[in-house]
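User: What would this chain look like folded?
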Amino acid sequence: LLAPIRDLANIIVDTSDHTVHTLRRYFVEEFATSAGSLDMNLTIMSFGHKHGMPVALDLLFDVRFLPNPHFVPDLRPLTGRHTEVIDYMLTFQEVRETIDRFGDLLEFLVPRYKREGRSYLTIGVGCTGGQHRSVMISEALAEKLRKSGYRARATHRDVSKR
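Assistant: Here's the prediction, encoded as structure tokens.
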């Protein structure tokens, strides 16, 4: 039934004795055109716990222990993308240390996930409302990972919710 299609193939791969992992490794080694095509895609997603947890996270950091700009009246209407919120947050040693330690942990973990054949990783960063702390930390982690040579982007699920 499939013989005519098989006759058109340039390469025929017998998958009988492969697991999904060995087959993936075979295709990557055989067909990847450059090391760049093997990069992992890292998504750091901020969210607010009061809106529910995202369903497809690989890792989760809860930053509700950090100082909350929501309780500073001038910062309340802003988000973690605004310079005023970023500057306020960075005045706290605890925030700076959290960024460094989470970043170090991710730099340790990502190569291990990649070695297992993962091509993407979604890291959740949650605070109460998804406006300030999680947004600021997500942006900082994405930047730290980009500086380390990873393809990383920050997304903000709940930043437009109030």
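Residues 43 and 81 are 17 Å apart (CA to CA). If you want, I can go into more detail on any region.
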